[in-house]
Amino acid sequence: MIKKTVNNVQEAMKGVHDGMTFMLGGFGLSGIPENAISELVRLNLKDLTCISNNAGVDDFGLGLLLHKKQINKMISSYVGENAEFERQMLSGELDVELTPQGTLAAKCQAAQQGFPAVYTPAGYGTEVAEGKETREFDGKMYVLEEAYKADFAFVKAWKGDEAGNLIFKGTARNFNPLMCGAATVTVVEVEELVKPGELDPNQVHIPGIFVQRIFQGKDYEKRIEQRTVRKKE
Amino acid sequence: MLDKNGIAKRIAKEVKDGFYVNLGIGIPTLVANYVRDDIEVEFQSENGILGMGPFPFEGEEDADLINAGKQTITALPGASFFDSAMSFGMIRGQHVDLTILGAMEVAENGDIANWKIPGKMVKGMGGAMDLVASAENIIVAMMHTNREGESKLLKRCSLPLTGVGCVTKVVTNLAVLEVTDKGFKLLERAPGVSVEEIKNATEGTLLVEGDIPEMQLN
């Protein structure tokens, strides 16, 4: 077994510096790499480009990095939950590349799987396709979207073993598996780090080959953005 | 004239037995409340679940189980979870039977705008561009006019487009309309609403052929 474990988030961050491009998993606040984000805030890295479906909320998730003006450019599909984000974007302080959600997923997956680019119908005929190559297949138009290039991917999984095999939970899975192996270094934090053999290989979502570093995460807040309930009848 | 729940109620009649359905945020989310309970339907949420159930009971919320609107949800028996690439694979691969979403503007050729007001509101398209580019059956749920009373059914969209020539049907507080080669074809009127009122609220070409029936909501 090739061991991928590191002792803590500080060790997992070895090699990060200003000006890098990061991928961060999560949809809304669900499945975000909370430990990695806290450490990036503490390290106070600047001029970052972040690829993440959303930009957190004002006081949590990527919103913490935005608040400290650590992010130069944000690549996301939806940023509606973050007032500070909208302010920085409209004032021009923050460079924003809005990308259709399925395209964002495909561009991560392409990077993971060695495709330089993929054709997608999403965004054809809109400003998203401006300046991009288009092509017709079977009478329908498609836009050529290039794979992302990133230095680090920060991923959150539910369970993982020392070999870096991962299992995700519920809708916290989202973009996390697609970012594994899509950057030069993939750093995974898990709620439960187990010994090899404790995960059923049939249940593994992401094999350890896509992971460079894995550590036992701690102090998860797992904040709920829109707590919605129904009454018991 | 219908309220938001009325629009959802009318759209629920478009949901057929055996459909996989993607519901957008806002009025479309309400549609799930009105689908007949004698048919089998599965709701897909693009953040990674098929077989989405109702909101959880208080105390049973799970941060790892949310819908595309980031609301806490439940998973029904037979549900499945998947990553975002597979989720949009279902959508792009046309495995989802019906897509219901909101809009700021719809044009008579089926163009839709719902993600950006330049210089004012820029929240992003989320999954809307992927959905409208691939789905074959797209129903828009929206109010017929905006807060200023201006028509949202136009000859051409004025806002940045989400997709081109993709909307098949529009259900508003005033009417049910089908998008055809010649414009918006009026299919039904909301209870108590006249054809004249619908004409006045529609900037795009409105086709009125024969007697227009009133919507049946039950």
UniProtKB/TrEMBL annotation, chain A:
One of its GO terms (molecular function) is CoA-transferase activity. Keywords: Transferase. It holds the Pfam family CoA_trans. It comes from Gillisia limnaea (strain DSM 15749 / LMG 21470 / R-8282). This is 3-oxoacid CoA-transferase, A subunit. Belongs to the 3-oxoacid CoA-transferase subunit A family. PROSITE patterns: COA_TRANSF_1 (PS01273). PANTHER family: ACETATE COA-TRANSFERASE SUBUNIT ALPHA, KETOACID-COENZYME A TRANSFERASE. SMART domains: CoA_trans.
UniProtKB/TrEMBL annotation, chain B:
Keywords: Transferase. One of its GO terms (molecular function) is CoA-transferase activity. Pfam families: CoA_trans (PF01144). The keyword Transferase applies. SUPFAM superfamilies: NagB/RpiA/CoA transferase-like. InterPro entries: 3-oxoacid_CoA-transf_B (IPR012791), CoA_trans_fam_I (IPR004165), CoA_transf_AS (IPR004164), NagB/RpiA_transferase-like (IPR037171). PANTHER family: KETOACID-COENZYME A TRANSFERASE (PTHR13707), SUCCINYL-COA:3-KETOACID COENZYME A TRANSFERASE SUBUNIT B-RELATED (PTHR13707:SF57). This is 3-oxoacid CoA-transferase, B subunit.
